[in-house]
Write a structure and sequence with these properties.
The complex is a heterodimer of chains A (about 400) and B (about 110).
Chain A (H helix, E strand, L loop, with lengths): L5 H37 L2 H20 L10 E4 L2 E3 L7 H11 L6 E5 L3 E4 L1 H17 L7 E4 L5 H9 L2 H5 L15 E2 L10 H15 L4 H22 L9 E8 L4 E8 L3 H6 L5 H7 L7 H10 L12 E3 L2 E3 L9 H12 L3 E5 L2 E5 L5 E6 L8 E8 L3 H4 L3
Parallel strand pairs in A: 1-3, 2-4, 3-5
Antiparallel strand pairs in A: 6-7, 7-8, 8-14, 9-10, 11-12, 11-14, 12-13
Chain B lengths: L1 E5 H4 L3 E2 L13 H8 L6 H5 L4 E5 L5 E2 L1 H7 L9 H7 E4 L3 H16 L2
Parallel strand pairs in B: 1-3, 2-4, 3-5
Helix pairs in contact in B: 2-4
The chains are: A alpha+beta (about 400), B alpha/beta (about 110).
C-alpha cells in the first residue's frame, strides 16, 4: 500500500471536514424547510397573509424610494399668483405646478417666486416634503439642489421666514419688513423626537382653541377625532430618515379669510401602496381592483370603507351576511371617523397622496377626486380649513 | 364589587394611542386594559360578571377613537355593548367622549 505523505493527509482531512460540514448544513436546511412546510400547512391563510405583510411593505417602500439619477439640466418652475389649495379656484393650478416638479429628474430645481403673491401653508408643506423626497430618492452626494428666488411681494418673503420654511430647508433669509404674530401660527419644524408628539399636538390644539369659531363641543370633537387620528396616522406611515420622523405639521390663522389652514403630512408610501401592501391587500385587490390604477379612488375607498393599510390589520371573514371582521377591537375606521367629524363641525378636508387627490367639502361630500400620471405630492398631505374668528370679531373675543 | 379609577390622575390625561407603536407609544390602550381591566379578558367573566369598574373621566382631556376601540370595544368579542356599559361605568364623561365610546362599542360589535 502506498504510503501517504503528511501533506496529503492534511489535505484529505480538510476535505473530509468540508464534506461533513456541507452535509450538516444541507440536512439542517432540509429539516428547517420541512418544519416551514408543516407550519404553513397548519397556519391559517389569513394569519399567513399577516405574517408576510412586513416584507411586502418593505418591497413597496423600496419601489417608491428606488434611487434615481438626477441628470437633466436645470428646471425652472414659475410660481405666479397665490400658491396653495386653500382657495378652491387655485386647486387645478396647484396640481398642475406640483406635478411638474415632484417627479423631476433635474440636477437643479429653481422655484421662481418673483411673481408669487401668496404662499399658503399647503404650498410650504409641499416644498418641505419635496426636500425630503429628493434626499431620499438620490444617491449620496448627488442630491439635486433646490433653489428659490426672492418674491416681489414682501408678504411672501416674510411668511416663508416666519413660518419656519427657511429654517427647515436651510436657506438664507431674505430681508422682510412683514412680521407675523407667533400666536397666529404653528411653525413647520423637523420632527425628530417621538416624545414631542403631545407638545406639537397641543400647539395645534391651542391655536384652534384661541382662534377658531368652533363651539366647545365641536372643538372637543375636532381634537379627539381629527387631530389625534391624523397625527397617529402620519406617525405610523412616516418613514423616519435623516434623523427625522418623516412627518410635518403647520398651521396658520388667516384672519382676513376667517379660517385656520392646517396641514399635517407624512413622507410615507401613500394610500394606494399602503392598502395594497398591508395585511388586507388581497381582499382589497379582489374587491376594489380599480384602485390599482387610480390613487384618487384609493383615497376615496379609505374614507368610505372599513379598510386598513396597516401591516397587522385584521382580515375580514366571509360570512352569509357579507364580509365582516370578527367581533372585538379592529382597525380601519380612523379615516371614516375623521370624515364624519369634519362633516359634523363643517370643516372641509383635502387629501393629496403621491398621484392622487381627494377634496371633501364641509358637508362631507366628495367634491374633487383625481389621479395624475405624475406625482402631485411626495407623501400624503391632510389639509383642513377650520372656521375661525375674522378680523371683525377678533376683539369681541 | 365596585372599583373606582380616576383615569386622568391615575393613568394619563391624553388617551390617544392604541398600542406602543402608535404616536409616542406612551399610556396606550393595551396598557390601560392590562392595568385596570385585565380580569375581564376572558369569556367566563362575561358569562356572569360579578365586578363593576367605574372610570372617572373628570381629568381626561383627550380620548381618541383608536384608544376607545382598543380599550373598550375589545370586549365586544365576549359581550354585547349594553352589558359592557353596565360593567364598565363611565363617570363625569362629556357627551362627545361618551359618543366616541358608544360608536366604537357598536361598530366593534357589528363589524362591516
Amino acid at each position: 500500500m502506498k504510503k501517504l505523505t503528511a501533506k496529503r493527509l492534511i489535505f484529505l482531512d480538510k476535505r473530509n471536514r468540508r464534506y461533513l460540514r456541507s452535509k450538516y448544513r444541507i440536512s439542517k436546511r432540509e429539516k428547517h424547510n420541512k418544519y416551514k412546510r408543516k407550519v404553513i400547512k397548519l397556519t391559517d391563510p389569513i394569519l399567513f397573509s399577516i405574517m408576510e405583510a412586513p416584507s411586502r411593505r418593505r418591497a413597496k417602500v423600496k419601489e417608491v424610494y428606488k434611487k434615481k439619477d438626477y441628470k437633466e439640466p436645470m428646471q425652472t418652475i414659475q410660481i405666479a399668483g397665490d400658491f396653495g389649495i386653500e382657495e378652491g379656484q387655485d386647486v387645478a393650478e396647484f396640481i398642475k405646478i406640483s406635478s411638474q416638479f415632484v417627479d423631476s429628474n433635474s440636477r437643479i430645481l429653481k422655484f421662481d417666486l418673483s411673481k408669487c403673491t401668496r404662499m399658503w401653508p399647503s404650498a410650504v408643506t409641499l416644498m418641505c416634503s419635496m426636500k425630503h423626497w429628493v434626499e431620499m430618492k438620490s444617491n449620496p452626494d448627488r442630491t439635486p439642489k433646490l433653489r428659490s428666488t426672492k418674491s416681489g411681494n414682501d408678504h411672501v418673503n416674510g411668511y416663508l421666514d416666519n413660518c419656519g420654511f427657511y429654517d427647515y430647508v436651510g436657506r438664507y433669509k431674505d430681508k422682510s419688513d412683514t412680521k407675523f404674530s407667533h400666536h397666529e401660527m404653528v411653525k413647520i419644524e423637523k420632527e425628530t423626537d417621538r416624545l414631542r408628539i403631545k407638545s406639537r399636538r397641543d400647539q395645534l390644539r391651542n391655536l384652534v382653541t384661541r382662534s377658531s369659531s368652533l363651539t366647545p363641543d365641536q372643538l372637543e370633537l375636532f381634537v379627539d377625532h381629527i387631530l389625534v387620528e391624523v397625527i397617529n396616522n402620519v406617525g405610523e406611515h412616516g418613514l423616519g430618515v435623516h434623523n427625522t420622523l418623516g412627518w410635518w405639521l403647520i398651521a396658520q390663522w388667516h384672519k382676513t379669510h376667517s379660517y385656520i389652514s392646517m396641514c399635517i403630512a407624512d413622507n410615507g408610501i401613500g394610500f394606494r401602496n399602503s392598502l395594497l401592501s398591508g395585511a388586507q391587500h388581497s381582499y382589497i385587490k379582489d374587491k376594489f381592483p380599480s384602485i390599482v390604477s387610480n390613487e384618487g379612488k384609493a383615497i376615496r375607498l379609505a374614507f368610505e370603507e372599513s379598510v386598513s393599510g396597516a401591516v397587522y390589520a385584521p382580515i375580514k371573514k366571509k360570512k352569509i351576511t357579507g364580509d365582516r371582521y370578527n367581533r372585538g377591537s379592529h382597525r380601519g375606521n380612523g379615516l371614516k371617523r375623521i370624515r364624519d367629524a369634519c362633516k359634523n363641525i363643517g370643516v372641509p378636508l383635502a387629501v393629496l397622496s403621491h398621484h392622487g387627490y381627494l377634496f371633501i367639502d364641509a358637508k362631507g361630500e366628495f367634491k374633487k377626486m383625481g389621479h395624475s400620471e405624475k406625482r402631485v405630492f411626495a407623501g400624503t398631505l391632510y389639509h383642513f380649513l377650520i372656521p375661525a374668528k375674522g378680523v371683525d370679531n377678533e376683539k369681541e373675543s | 364589587m365596585k372599583k373606582r379609577v380616576d383615569v386622568g390622575k391615575e393613568f394619563f390625561v391624553d388617551l390617544v394611542n392604541r398600542d406602543e407603536h402608535q404616536g409616542d407609544g406612551l399610556f396606550h390602550a393595551k396598557e390601560f386594559r392590562q392595568k385596570y381591566l385585565t380580569e375581564m379578558d376572558n369569556q367566563d367573566f362575561w358569562n356572569n360578571p360579578q365586578k363593576t369598574i367605574v372610570l372617572d373621566f373628570q381629568h381626561v382631556e383627550v380620548l381618541g377613537p383608536s384608544f376607545a376601540n382598543e380599550a373598550f370595544a375589545y370586549f365586544t368579542k365576549f359581550a354585547k355593548p349594553e352589558l359592557i356599559k353596565t360593567v364598565i361605568v363611565f363617570d363625569h364623561i362629556s357627551q362627545v367622549k361618551m359618543s366616541t365610546i358608544n360608536v366604537e362599542l357598536e361598530q366593534g360589535y357589528k363589524g362591516y
